Structure of Glycine cleavage system H protein:
Amino acid sequence: MFKINADLKYTPTHEWVRKEKDYIVVGITDCAQHLLGDIVYIDMDNASNILEKDKEVVVVESVKAASSVYSPVNGMLVVFNTILNDSPELINTDPYGNGWIFKAKVDNITLAWENLLSSNDYQKLANKE
């Protein structure tokens, strides 16, 4: 069983989303980090400042594979969690806390929030993994 926080929203591609005022914070779920294994690198070099829903933002590399992290919304990239450059393993040890990946400014945060998966809906999806 994977840890899923009820106060977050989720995507079918295993990103979690948290609201912070007019911003969202995005990371990968506990399920995703388990599937990937030990995270060794985050490639933030090719990211655009303009985020498009369902488009790649960064690539997370593990000992098993590389996996894209997608934007759950349209918006503007505000900041990356640059701590991950030196400590990518935070995604494994604290995926919903210090392992967050990026923050974004969203034009209509209410609409964006409503179009994401609830924790219950994501739980059903994660149970199939």
Remarks:
- Helices lie at 30-36, 83-86, 90-93, 109-114, 119-127.
- The chain has five helices and nine strands.
- The longest strand covers residues 56-62.
- Residues 119-127 form the longest helix (9 residues).
